[in-house]
Specification:
single chain, alpha+beta, two-stranded antiparallel ribbon, 2 helices, 4 strands
Length: 85
C-alpha cells in the first residue's frame, strides 16, 4: 500500500468490537454514544498503513474498506475484494 490510500467505514455493518481502534487509533475511534466506528482520518499517513490493513483483517463485521491509488481500486484484503462469508 505505497500509493495514496483512502479508508472508508460502514457504520451500518459495524458491531462495535473496537479492534480497529486498538489497532490503529490514529485512524479509527468509537462513538461514545453507540460504540460504533468513527473514521478519524480517511487518508491515513504512510506509517499507519500496515496497521490499517490489519484493522481491515481483524474487523469481524467487514465494516472497513481500503482503496489505493488515484482511481482508488480496491486493495487485496479489503471487504470489497474478499469473498463473501
Amino acid at each position: 500500500m505505497s500509493a495514496a490510500v483512502r479508508v472508508s467505514v460502514d457504520r451500518d455493518r459495524c458491531c462495535g468490537a473496537g479492534n480497529c481502534v486498538v489497532t490503529a487509533p490514529e485512524v479509527f475511534d468509537q462513538d461514545d454514544e453507540d460504540g460504533l466506528v468513527l473514521l478519524r482520518r480517511a487518508e491515513p499517513p504512510a506509517d499507519t498503513l500496515d496497521r490499517v490493513r490489519l484493522a481491515v483483517e481483524l474487523c469481524p463485521a467487514g465494516a472497513i474498506s481500503v482503496a489505493a491509488g488515484p482511481e482508488h481500486p480496491a486493495v487485496a484484503g479489503s471487504p470489497e475484494t474478499s469473498a463473501a462469508p
